[in-house]
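Forum: Protein Structure Q&A
Topic: Joint prediction for protein chains with partners

I've read a bunch of threads here and the consensus seems to be that you should model interacting components together rather than docking separate models afterwards. I'd like to see that in practice. Below is the full input, 553 residues plus whatever partners are listed. Could one of the regulars post the assembled result?
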Amino acid sequence: MTAQEIHDGLKAKFGGAVLDAKFEVMQPWISIAPDRMKDVAFFLRDDPSMQFDYMMCLSGVDYNDGRLAIVYHLFSMVHRHKIVLKAFCTKENPHVQTVSSVWGTANWHEREVFDMYGIIIDEHPDPRRLLMPDDWEGHPLRKDYKVPEFYNGMKVPY
Amino acid sequence: MNETKTLPTEYVTHPGGIKSSRGQTLRTDEMIINMGPQHPSTHGVLRLEIVVDGEIIIDVIPHIGYLHRCFEKHAEHMTNYQQVIPYCDRLDYCAAINEEHSYVLAVERMLKIELPERVEYIRVIMAELQRIASHLIAVGTFGIDAGAFTPFLYAFHDRELILSLFEMTCGARLLYNYFWIGGLSHDLPPQFVDKAKEFCTHFKPRIKEFNDLLTFNEIFVTRTANVGVLPKDVAINYACSGPMLRGSGINWDLRRDDPYSVYHKIEWEPKVGKGEMGTVGDVWDRHIVRMREMEESVKIIEQALAALPAGNVQAAIPKRIRPDVGEIYARTETPRGELGFYIISDGSATPYRVKGRSPAFVNLSVLPEISRGAMIADLVLIAGSVDIVLGQVDR
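Posted by a regular:
Agreed with the consensus. Here's the joint model:
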C-alpha cells in the first residue's frame, strides 16, 4: 500500500485521530493524536491489508519550538510496505500513549524516550529510566538541557 | 519485585513439594541473584537481575546503561556530518565497518549521491570481512560460555588475519573511520586483492575445522539444543534481527530484502535455522546460522574481488555536506542485525538529530522472554547466543 492509501484507511477508521500527513518527502509520515496511539497501532498491526508487524525504530525528537514528538518507523514483513507515524505533544503536557502492548520492542524504546526527552508514556508497564541512573535529574537529549554541575557529590563535566 | 510470582506448572519437578528425610515438606522460596555488571559471561558491563526458584529462572531483568557514552548528544554537537563517523565506529567496536556503512548510507541517501562502482564493491568486501571477524568473536566467546576454550583461540587466529587486511588498507585495526560520505578514506593497496584471496582460500577449510571442534561436538550440542527457544511470532513482535531472527527460521536478510550497495549483483543466500538438533529457534540454531553466514560471506568476498572495477574512490566525495531539510531512516544488515540511523537535517552542516537503532539493544530486550524456565547455567548460553556488544546496546 502507498502512504496515501494507508492514510485514507486510517482516516476512514479513526477520523479525528489522524491529524496531519506529508507525502511528498523521502519517507512519508502521518501524524496521530498522542492519546489515540494505542488503538491506531493495534489497527495497523492487525488489519489484514496493513499488517505492520515489525517496528523498525522508535525515536524521540525535540523540535526546539515547544513541541516534542515520538516517531515510529513501521514495516510489514508480509506486505513489505513502510510507514512513519508521528505523535506530537508539547513540553507543558508531554504525554503519549504506550504501544508496548502492540509491539514488544517498543517497551525499551519508550523507556529510552522517557529517559532522554521526558515524554511520559501513559500506561507503560515499566515506566523507569533506561540508560541514565534512576536518580538523574533532567532529560539529556532535550535541546534546552543544561548539564548539572554535580551528581551525588561528583563533578559532572570532567 | 513486589508481587510474588509462582512457578509455572510445567517446571515443577516435585509436585506437592520436596520431602526431607523425616517426611516434612521443605519450604521453597524465590530468590534474587545478581549477575554482573562485572561478570565474564555477560560480554561487557551488563547487569542481570535474576529471579530464581531453586535453579529455575522465573524472570530476568536486564539493567543497561553502564556504557552509555551519549552518542546521540555528541552527534548533534559535531561541526559537520563527517565527524560523526568515528563515533559510529565506537558503537559496535567488534564490527565498526558495518556501523559506518549504515551511517554513510543514510547521509548519502539524503544528499542523493551516486557512488562509483569501485567504492560500492570495496565497501561490500570490507563489510563482509568485518562480518566474518565479528562472527568469529561471537562463536569463539560463545564456545567459552559453553566451557570450550580451544575454539576461541582458533577464531582469534583467523580474526587476526582479517585485522591485518584492514591495517594494510587504512592503518587501523579496530576503529577504522574508513567509509567516508561519498567514498573511502584510502584506495586498496596494490597487494590487497591477492592477500584477500589468500585469506579466503585459507579460511574455507578452517570453518569446517571449527565446526568439527565446536558446532557438532556432542557436549556442545547437548548444552545448546532446545535451550532458549525464540518462537517466530515473538521474534517479529520484538523486532529481532540478524542471526536471532534467522535462527528462528525466518528467511529475512536486509542485504537481499531491502537492497543497498551491490549485494543484488552477487550470488548468495541467507541462512536460516532449521532445528536440526532440536527446536527451531534454539541457541544451537543461532550458532549454526553464524557459522553458515561466514561461508556465505566468503562467497560474497570472492565474487566481489573478481568483479572489482577500476576507478577513483574519492571522486564522489562532496566538498560541502549540507543535506536539504528532511529526515531519513536507513538500515543495513550488520553481523548483529538491522542497524538503522534516523537522521533529521535542518539544512545546516550538523545533523539535528541522530538516532541509532541498534540491533544488540533490540535483541537484548527479548532476553527475559526466552530465558524464563531455563537453568542459570543455560542463561549464560542464552545471553551469549544473543551476541550483544554493550557499546551498541548503551550507545
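The interface with chain A takes residues 64-65, 68, 70, 72-73, 109-110, 234, 236-239, 250, 252, 257, 326-329, 331, 338, 340, 342, 344, 353, 355, 357, 361-362, 365-366, 369, 394-395 of chain B (CB under 8 Å).
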